[in-house]
């Protein structure tokens, strides 16, 4: 398969998370869409994209407010971000990196014990990692209030194969990741390491295991989203991901 287009990655992302973290996608004028989560208020899960014109902007804003969400816009590139800034002045902006990795039969094997679970909802061992990815009490409370209930309630969807991975060390569940496979693409999400096990290479190890699992299940390309620049992007670059697109999330109010 050729390099995925921005639209292909966007659609694969929405397909991956709809039914768990995302509840729906609404379609507006001229190809604009609004993505929403019923339970999770975060701007990364409640945003409009494909907005370039004033009528699309008005529709997206009204749709967001109708769902009790502040308007947020995903600009696919610098040109679209500049066009949006002629319509409003963002209160906050978050540059992102959409990264891809080609998968081959020679994907390296993980050097740790990793278990894979092909179920819509992740297993308890996964939760033991995900709920403790930070020492910050506010972060842990946010995960327990919003993300874990949504992940537990995940439902199966035709054509989508979810696979949750848990890496164990001598102390038990230590790192986790989720794959969502569809049509030769594998979305990588929820890569996390317990706060008390960080800086030991476990995040890289579970990512390597996820890529091998994705290839073994027929995926030819993996994709992910992360903040632009910094250590997270560098970690993914070390295991074979490259930046394909550099969108920006523009918020009308501070999250």
UniProtKB/TrEMBL annotation:
Residues 116-255 form the N-acetyltransferase domain. InterPro entries: Acyl_CoA_acyltransferase (IPR016181), GNAT_dom (IPR000182). Coiled coil: none annotated. It comes from the Bacteria. GO terms for molecular function: acyltransferase activity, transferring groups other than amino-acyl groups. PROSITE patterns: GNAT. This is N-acetyltransferase domain-containing protein. It comes from Methylobacterium pseudosasicola.
């Amino acid at each position: 398969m050729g390099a995925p287009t921005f639209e292909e990655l966007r659609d694969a992302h929405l397909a991956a998370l709809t039914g768990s973290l995302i509840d729906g996608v609404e379609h507006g004028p001229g190809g604009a869409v609004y993505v929403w989560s019923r339970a999770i208020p975060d701007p990364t899960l409640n945003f409009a994209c494909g907005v370039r014109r004033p009528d699309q902007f008005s529709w997206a804003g009204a749709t967001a407010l109708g769902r009790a969400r502040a308007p947020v816009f995903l600009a696919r590139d610098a040109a679209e971000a500049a066009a949006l800034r002629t319509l409003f002045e963002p209160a906050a902006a978050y540059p992102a990196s959409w990264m891809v990795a080609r998968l081959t039969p020679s994907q390296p094997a993980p050097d740790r014990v990793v278990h894979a679970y092909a179920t819509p909802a992740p297993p308890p061992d996964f939760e033991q990692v995900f709920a403790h990815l930070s020492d910050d009490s506010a972060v842990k409370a946010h995960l327990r209030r919003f993300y874990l209930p949504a992940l537990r309630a995940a439902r199966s969807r035709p054509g989508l194969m979810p696979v949750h991975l848990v890496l164990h060390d001598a102390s038990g569940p230590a790192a986790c990741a989720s794959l969502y496979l569809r049509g030769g693409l594998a979305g990588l999400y929820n890569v996390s390491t317990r706060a008390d096990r960080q800086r030991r290479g476990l995040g890289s190890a579970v990512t390597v295991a996820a890529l091998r699992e994705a290839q073994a299940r027929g995926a030819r390309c993996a994709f992910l989203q992360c903040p632009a620049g910094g250590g997270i992007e560098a970690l993914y670059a070390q295991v074979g991901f490259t930046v394909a697109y550099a969108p920006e999330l523009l918020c009308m109010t501070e999250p």
